């Protein structure tokens, strides 16, 4: 804590300068950071009387020591010898001295109450984000793979889509469908038991053994629109989820029924 005493009008007027002086900065406070020969430290604050209170006993001992090799401490000693108006004193820390503990109080207050921080958006970053989304959209429009998903999600976006797992299986199209199993050589044919391609659209609209899960079959030219309408309709999505759950629970008998039907047609 720094206290400056001066006598402008015939009596002592006490002007306290409340500040926290950390131990590692106490010596530098006397010396300042100017060129040699200039008084820019604490000694230049007041030309009359200066009293510096510090809770750093080690720093005070360093300044008072005769055998000291620290150049900053040596320079502080020279200032004290030339400036007899500067006095040093020691006080205990954390015992209620407002000036010495003002910084600690303010730091605690900031920690408990916080301070609102607003960061201006970086325009260049926002511009890069827009260009990245435009490039991403162009790549998604021109890709050959994933066209079944494109029928449902034609616009790219950075937010998560609310589709559930059975609906994703139906749209991708992954799962226990002959077209998917044939792709990984799990089945020899991608045909359904009735001879048609065993894709999700066929099972959701035409497969004869699960008519209770059927949706209205679209014409070939309206098929892309059908996907978009169905996946945006809660009732249709509920039927699709039930269809996928049924196939998953009865996969063995479901596939066996397809094999039996195929053999019967061949015979």
Layout of secondary structure:
Blueprint: E1 2-6, E2 13-17, H1 23-31, E3 49-54, H2 57-64, H3 71-82, E4 86-90, H4 98-113, H5 123-142, H6 147-152, H7 165-171, H8 178-183, H9 200-205, H10 223-231, H11 234-249, H12 251-266
Parallel strand pairs: 3-4
Antiparallel strand pairs: 1-2, 1-3
Helix pairs in contact: 1-3, 7-11
Describe this structure as you would to a colleague.
Among the domains are: 29-34 and 47-113, Ribonuclease H-like superfamily/Ribonuclease H (Nucleotidyltransferase, domain 5, 2-Layer Sandwich), CATH 3.30.420; 159-257, no CATH class. The N and C termini lie far apart (104 Å). Mean pLDDT is 75; it is low at 1-20, 33-40 and 261-267. The protein has a 4-stranded mixed β-sheet, with no helix packed on it. With 267 residues, it is of the alpha+beta class. The chain contains 12 helices and 4 strands. Helix content is 49%, strand content 8%. Helix 1 (23-31) crosses helix 3 (71-82) and helix 7 packs across helix 11 (234-249). It has helices at residues 23-31, 57-64, 71-82, 98-113, 123-142, 147-152, 165-171, 178-183, 200-205, 223-231, 234-249, 251-266, and strands at 2-6, 13-17, 49-54, 86-90.
Mean pLDDT: 75
Report the β-strand fraction as a percent range: 5-15%
Strand order of the largest sheet: 2-1-3-4
Tally of alpha and pi helices: 12
Tell me the helix content: 40-55%
Give the C-alpha Rg. Answer: 41 Å
- Please tell me what the overall shape is: rod-shaped
Characterize the biggest β-sheet: 4 strands, mixed
End-to-end separation in angstroms reads 104 Å
InterPro entries: RNaseH-like_sf, RNaseH_domain, RNaseH_sf
Pfam families: RNase_H
Domain RNase H type-1: 63-110
Organism: Araneus ventricosus
């Amino acid at each position: 804590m720094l206290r400056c005493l001066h006598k402008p009008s015939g009596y002592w007027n006490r002007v306290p300068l409340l500040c926290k002086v950390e131990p590692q900065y106490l010596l530098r406070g006397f010396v300042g950071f100017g060129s040699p020969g200039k008084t820019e430290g604490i000694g230049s604050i007041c030309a009359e009387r200066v009293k510096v209170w510090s809770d750093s006993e080690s720093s005070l001992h360093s300044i008072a020591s005769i055998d000291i090799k620290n150049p900053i401490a040596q320079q502080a000693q020279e200032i004290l010898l030339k400036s007899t108006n500067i006095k040093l004193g020691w006080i205990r820390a954390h015992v209620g001295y407002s000036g010495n503990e003002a910084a600690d109080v303010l730091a605690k207050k900031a920690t408990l109450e916080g301070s609102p921080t607003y960061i201006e958006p970086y325009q260049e970053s926002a511009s890069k984000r827009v260009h990245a989304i435009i490039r991403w959209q162009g790549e998604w429009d021109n890709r050959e793979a994933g066209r079944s998903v494109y029928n449902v999600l034609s616009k790219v976006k950075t937010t998560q889509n609310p589709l559930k797992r059975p609906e994703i299986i139906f749209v991708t199209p992954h799962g226990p469908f002959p077209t998917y199993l044939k792709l990984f050589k799990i089945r020899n044919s991608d045909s359904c038991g009735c001879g048609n391609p065993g894709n999700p659209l066929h099972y959701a609209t035409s497969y004869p053994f699960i008519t209770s899960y059927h949706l209205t079959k679209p014409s070939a030219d309206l098929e892309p629109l059908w996907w978009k309408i169905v996946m945006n309709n809660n009732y249709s999505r509920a039927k699709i989820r039930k269809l996928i759950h049924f196939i998953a629970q009865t996969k063995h008998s479901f596939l066996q029924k397809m094999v039996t039907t195929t053999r019967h047609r061949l015979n």
